[in-house]
Structure formats: structure tokens, C-alpha cells
Predict the structure of Propionyl-CoA carboxylase alpha chain, mitochondrial.
Amino acid sequence: MAGLWVSLGSLVAAGRRARRSPQQLMQSAALWTLKNVSHHSRQHLMVTRSLCSAGYDSNEKTFDKILVANRGEIACRVIKTCKKMGIKTVAIHSDVDTSSVHVKMADEAVCVGPAPTSKSYLNMEAILEAIRKTKAQAVHPGYGFLSENKEFAKCLDADEAVRIAREIGYPVMIKASAGGGGKGMRIAWDDEETRDGFRFSSQEAASSFGDDRLLIEKFIDNPRHIEIQVLGDKHGNALWLNERECSIQRRNQKVVEEAPSIFLDSETRRAMGEQAVALAKAVKYSSAGTVEFLVDSKKNFYFLEMNTRLQVEHPVTECITGLDLVQEMIRVAKGYPLRHKQADIPINGWAVECRVYAEDPYKSFGLPSIGRLSQYQEPIHLPGVRVDSGIQPGSDISIYYDPMISKLITYGSDRTEALKRMEDALDNYVIRGVIHNIALLREVIINSRFIKGDINTKFLSDVYPDGFKGHKLTESERNQLLAIASSLFVASQLRAQHFQEPENSRVPIVKPQVANWELSIKLNDEVHTAVASNNGKTFSVEVDGSKLNVTSTWNLASPLLSVNVDGTQRTIQCLSREAGGNMSIQFLGTVYKVHILTKLAAELNKFMLEKVAEDTSSTLRSPMPGLVVAISVKPGDMVSEGQEICVIEAMKMQNSMTAGKTGKVKSVHCKAGDTVGEGDLLVELQ
């Protein structure tokens, strides 16, 4: 067969991982070149649609064919660079991913199993068979799945985990040794939390990475998370490609990243870069890799781990340096020396990346959402915008894989421009069919603390201690929204009146003529009055005594609508309009539900009976779609408030569902192994 995998990199990790010898560390890899399957080692390589990327030297001979052992946006990302380099690609896929974008982009495709990752994207035997069948010369695993599936520590049981945690000293971080992305990761402040963290982390690790081994390390509270991108070759050369600021996180998973960091000065940047390069050289690392640090308020930095792979957030580094990291990985894997010296690595401009997820940000900053993308439109028409994605209209977001929709990257000459472009890009991003986190992303980048650079890994919980509630409208913004809603309502009513009169009709059709539309608008449980009049493309609207002029094309069929309100330009999305007066409008990133009626209809509506709210205190419903991993109760059991009832796994993250009150279990409506949807009834109490 055509080969085994030649590594693009090696691996260093935190805590107990750092005790491994350079020889052991060198067994990790980043791109695999094939030769001898009985002694394979693993790791990775990667690519991008480039706002800013280096040119490719066509005289350099690399590989004829690369198998991409991943899915979604990262598979598409790798395939794009391979195509640019003239390399044929092989995609692997599960049976539910047969029509996915990455499969269509590749030159060849091989099904490696059914939907569960353990039977497909983590199925080493099936992937090796695909390599043999297609005669691929190298493998790029991207990130996640098999990209860091290396042996680090011995298996622990829960007692051993507690012993180690006590030895280190609380608080501690428990995390999967085989992966990242916040999966298989828990913070423990005492013995009980260590036991729970061990249970959930090992189960998540096994489900996500096919490896349930864990690491335990000291948890540092309130730090910044800053990482250094490194690049090494097989000739002893290594570079640091500046830093990435990755402190905005939820559940230990990055949400917003940027390069460079607003916090670092040139001296600290150089010190961190030189230490990262020293580490890479010490283990003879040859690939793109990332050395992660925790940084305190005094710019003291502490080694966290080294990821021997391409990071999700690598595009921001590409933007400010002009390098295509996937291309560099492929070159290094083939044995070419680096083309650049340290003095050649610039910081040109500023780049910001937002991870766009199919998640509900109003539930714990993002519980997974599933569904089919009924409408999807990326904001790539805007200047300085790059989108790395692996989906299209009609794509499914399922419970089996990570819920990332895309990586949205903006680039500008400075941080202010990059953030303004991100704000515009988020407003112009059309995603229908699934719940998404656009509202949270937009609020983060306009937050005054974020703009000043006053951030740490607890930013979200500090800024939103009671959870994310969406954008809080100022009085001026509220009046703008009400004026826009009034204009949309009247525009819709006027359009409905413009129908063609049938020929030879003997009955004249009388079209009502209304000069001023008197309206009643309900927003956030408050009722407002408005009077709207129309003059071509402009509506004059008086809202609670304030007069505003609203101008637009009023193309109600368009998913995006550019609206000018008294000289202020806004991009809004009218998500739904119902005959009963209900309207959903995405305004400043947040979706607002507006109930708008004519004054007469509002008067009559007072006589309608209101629906009695359901008593939900005795029921436990699933807050998200997922898989029931365990049921801890049976009918007749007594439970206390806060006691675990069951465990739901969604997108490889396990969530403990607890009782909302003390009582006796009346009935259980699910069992371990069942798939449940959002809102499905799980357990009833008497």
C-alpha cells in the first residue's frame, strides 16, 4: 500500500504531559505521509480561502494525493489549498454526510461508516482502508476527531483523580488528553466536583475522540488565554508567527479570537515567541503548531500546552502575516525548508474571528440547536470579510457533530476597522432554519470592556452574571426599532392592496385609502402607540411622541433590508410576518418579537381570552436535542431539588438534568440510548 503517515509536527502538553521525553513527544504528528502502516503515528495539517495568503511556488513538488480525514469547514478549508497547489484530494464521510459540501469538493470520496463518530470519523480501520483503496500519499486530519489522538497518561479511576487533585491543590482542571475544543473538560473545586468531572469528562472524551484518558492540572483563575503560532521544518528551523488573543470563551471553548493581542507589548510578545520556538526546537518539531499560555494582569505568562495541529482560529494569523499555514504544513511535510526568516514575519493590520455556531446563546451561552438550513447567505460581499465554512443552503446540523456553522473573519488596517467590519458582517449574515449565536457574538464585540481590551477567560460570566439576555435597547434604539416595525407593517399592508383587477369584472374593487395608520405595538411586554404615513420609499413615523423618517427599498422578499432611520444606516432581517400581527425582526443582532395591530384591531383584541400558562414545575423537559446517556431515577423514587435525574449528550457535551423541586417520580418517558428533541418530556413528578 502507499504508505504510512509522515508527521508535520509533534506534541507537547500541560501538567503531567510535560514530563515526557523529546523522543516520546516526537511520536506526535500533524500531516501524515504514508509508508508503513504497522508503525503509524498521528497528527495533522491545513488550509484557507485567503484574504491574505502567500503565493504558491509551482516548481515545488509535494504530494499527488492527500486524504482529508475530517468533515465540515475544516475539510473544505484543506481541500481549497490542496486544489490551489494542484493536489488531488480524497474526502471521507459518514453515511449521513454523503451530500455534504466537503464530499462534493473532493476529487474522490469514501464512506467510512454510519453517523456516530466512533463508527466513522474515529474509525481508524475504515480510514486506513480508505488510504489503501485510494493510494493517498498523505493524510490531513484537520482538528478534532483523530488530530490529537496520542497517548499521554495512564488511565485513572475516580479515586486516583481525587488523590491527584488533592496533591496539586484545588481548583484543578480535568480535561481529555486526546482532544480540545472544550470537550471533555471540567473545573473542580473540591473532591465531589472532581468525581463528577472525572465521570463527565471521560465519557465526553470517549464519545468525541475515542479515548477516555484524562489529564489533571492546576486551574488558574481569571487569566488571559494567549497563544503563539509556531512553524518548524525538518532542517532545524523554527519561527513564531505572533500571537492570538483567545480569552473570550464559554465552557472552556473559544468564541472570539483576534490577532494580535491588544494586551501584549513588543517585549512580552518576543519573550513568549522565543520560548515557544525554543520548545519547538527542543522536540525537533516540524509543522505548524500552537503553544498556549495563560497570562496574568502583570504580563507574567505560564505554559499551558502545545497543540500539534492547525488551530480553529488559524485564519487570524494568516491575515496579519500573509502566510497560508496549510500550504506551509504541506511543504514542510514533504521536506522543504521554511521560506521565511523571523525578521520576515510582520504584523500587518488586525484580524478578528467569530465562531458562528448553531447554538442558543440564551441557554448557558449556547446549548446546541439542530435542523436544516432553509436559507443561508454569507456576508462575503463586504470588504475585509472571509468565511470558512463547509455548509450550504439545505445542509443539516445534526446531533452527531460539532455545531459550528462557520468561522467569520474580518480584517482591517487596525482593530477599530476590523471590529466595525465584524459588526457589519454579523448584521449581514443570513442563517435560517436553526438557532444561532449571532446575537451573542455581536454583543461581545461592541461591549465597552471588550473594546478597551479589559478581558479574561471569565468575560462572559462577568459581563452576563444572570446569563445572556440579548441586546439591551437604548430609548433611541427602541424608537428606531418601533419605527422600522411600523414601516414594515404598513408596507406589507400596502403591498397586499396592490393586486390586479380581473378583466371584465362587473364588481368594482374598492381599495382603502389610509393617510395615517394608527398603530398599537407590543414590545417586551410594553405597549407603544405609533402613527405612520407613507411617501414613496419613505415613511414618516411618530412613536410615543418622537418623529422619525424611515427610508428603504422595502423589498419584503429580501432576507436583508438596508434601512435609513434619520440618517442612521441599519441592516435588519425580517424573519417572519404573520397575519395576526406577530413579527420577528433581527435588529442589532438580536431577534425581537413585535406584536403590531391597527388601533381598531388592538381595541377588539382586548376582548380575546388569554391562554393560561402551563405549570411546568412538575415536569423535566430536554432543553436541547440530544442523546439520553443515563437515567438515574425510576417511578416511585423520591428526589430532592437539584438532584440529577438524567444525563443528555448533545454535540459530544454531556449535560446533567436536575430536579426543579422535591417530590416523587410519577413517570419516566425516556431510557438510556433514546434520542430526544428540544422540549421533549423526560420525567414527571407528582
About this structure: The domain at 65-140 is CATH 3.40.50.20 (Rossmann fold). Residues 475-497 form the longest helix (23 residues). Residues 1-53, 150-156 have pLDDT under 50 and may be disordered. DSSP finds 15 helices and 38 strands in the chain.
